[in-house]
Design goal:
This protein has 15 helices and 16 strands. The chain is an alpha/beta fold and 396 residues long. The chain has a single domain (2-296), classed as Alpha-Beta Barrel (TIM Barrel), CATH 3.20.20.105. β4 (29-33), α1 and β5 (54-58) form a beta-alpha-beta unit. It binds one RNA strand of 84 nucleotides through residues 31, 33, 35-36, 40-41, 56, 58, 61, 89-90, 92-94, 96-98, 101-102, 107-111, 121, 124, 163, 166, 168, 206, 232, 234, 237-241, 266-272, 275, 287-291, 293-300, 309, 312-313, 345-346, 348, 350, 352-354, 356-357.
Length: 396
RNA sequence: GCGUCGGUGGCAGAGUGGUCAAAUGCAUCAGACUGUAAAUCUGACGCCCUUCGGGCUACGUAGGUUCGAAUCCUACCCGGCGCA
């Protein structure tokens, strides 16, 4: 199911192959986010051209959207017209994102909402030891999602890799709460394994424990010892949650040694360029992140010298490609200069977001290809240094 | 020529005696975005002073009425429309 082909001699980086029911994923790999069973703005054909290997969809949203139709659901592969690998997130992140994170504005760097702002973004989630009560509106009815139901939904969705239901805690939570959330996650992890019935799906357990060393180690030890096919690392990570990168990657150092060498490790929701290098270096095999697709829609295009906002006026008469040496479908087309794409964004043309998404997704997938190659060549540390310096020199 | 309607910040367009440096939209500029609340959000946008705040100049032009005018009056300039 997962094989490590080559290990870097100077770090924990490794090249591997993950075999799922729908093919192979060469790792380290980027998992492209398709929450609602589609990668926003991209057709299945577009996706192929972006070198995408695997997509992650979301249990919570598909459950809410499909409702009764879930019983007769044809499966994600058919629905998405995507023949390759798919994973589903369990809905555990929504316990956080629609709850505490929404209320407190966590996730925006350096900014937490004031009490006034909180009123307009109320917490829509109530967590108990048994599961999570969600509501769509502050005054709407509650509905319950727990480990058992999450697995049942994920089995109906039919992804190749499913995730255990967890509670993602916040960096604002103290040790006591984080411990409680971690213990719930552990309890739910065992339930997920118990109730899972399909043999053609892999299941990953999820390590929590926030920024606390004792909890991270405890969680890694506990989850790592359970018979999962792989492991996700989630929770309060990275500067997105108000923590420094250094601190968050120290956490990986606490966790990874407790996870089995021969099983894949997924870094949940993390995926900026420096994160990728640091994650791979720490022993991560797969990443997923909204950044390539969301920022594309917002006009931010990524290149080896940093990202830029194509909507800015300076690109109005810029007849260069997004990125000179890029082999993505957009950069390879004749009539897709920065000037064209700028204009499409200004005209609110739907093609704008599509072009931007194609480029960004290709960029990140291609970066992973280069990382894999560098590991195979025994050159990862040099490649990392060179690439990060390239970005730093021009600024992000 | 007569009549009539109108001339507001980069543009469009509110305001029709004080709470107006002037709503709103667009444009512009800056920023954010990390298991998708997000093809989204935030801030700036007359000039000057260090922010709170204060000062100055502004609603076609020039005068006037008034404690006070983008808002009222007069003349003029410009534009649309109608009639000659």
């Amino acid at each position: 199911m997962f094989e490590v082909i080559k290990k870097d001699s100077e770090s924990r980086a490794r090249f591997g192959v993950l075999k799922t029911a729908h093919g192979f994923v060469e790792t380290p790999a980027y998992t492209i986010v398709g929450t609602h069973a589609e990668v926003r703005c991209l057709s299945p054909v577009d996706l192929v051209s972006t070198k995408t290997q695997i997509i992650i969809a979301n249990t919570y949203y598909l459950w809410r959207t499909l409702g009764d139709k879930l019983e007769s659901f044809e499966g994600l592969h058919k629905r998405m017209n995507w023949p390759a690998s798919i994973m589903t997130d369990s809905g555990g992140f929504q316990v956080f994102s629609l709850g505490f994170a929404r209320e407190h504005g966590v996730g925006k760097v350096g900014k937490f909402f004031s009490s006034e702002e909180r009123e307009s973004r109320p917490n829509l989630v109530r967590v108990t030891d048994d599961g999570a009560w969600f509501k769509e509106k502050p005054d709407g009815p509650e509905f319950f999602l727990d480990a058992k139901l999450s697995i049942s939904i994920q089995e109906k969705l039919g992804a190749d890799i499913i995730l255990a239901f967890d509670e993602c805690s916040s960096p604002l939570h103290d040790h006591e709460y984080t411990k409680k959330a971690m213990e719930r996650t552990h309890k739910w992890a065992k339930i997920c394994l118990d109730v899972k019935t399909r043999n053609d799906q892999m299941i990953y357990g999820i390590v929590q424990g926030g920024a606390f060393e004792d909890l991270r180690k405890e969680s890694a030890k506990f989850i790592g010892a359970l018979p999962f096919h792989g492991f996700g690392i989630g929770g309060a990570f990275g500067n997105s949650f108000g923590d420094s990168k250094e601190a968050s990657f120290k956490e990986l150092g606490w966790i990874i040694p407790y996870l089995p060498e021969n099983k894949p490790r997924h870094f949940l929701g993390i995926g900026r360029i420096d994160d990728l290098f640091l994650g791979v270096e720490a022993g991560i095999d797969t990443f997923d992140c909204v950044i390539p697709t969301r920022e594309a829609r917002h006009g931010s295009l990524w290149t080896p010298v940093g990202r830029f906002d194509i909507k800015k006026g300076v690109y109005k008469n810029d007849y260069r490609k997004i990125q000179d040496d890029c082999l993505c479908e957009v950069c390879s087309e004749k009539n897709t200069t920065r000037q064209n794409i700028h204009e499409l964004f200004k005209n609110k043309d739907k093609e704008a977001a599509r072009f931007a998404t194609i480029h960004n997704v290709f960029f990140f997938n291609n970066l992973m290809t280069q990382i894999r190659r560098s590991i195979l060549d025994g050159n990862f540390p040099r490649f990392k240094e060179r690439f990060l310096r390239g970005i730093a020199s021009k600024g992000l």
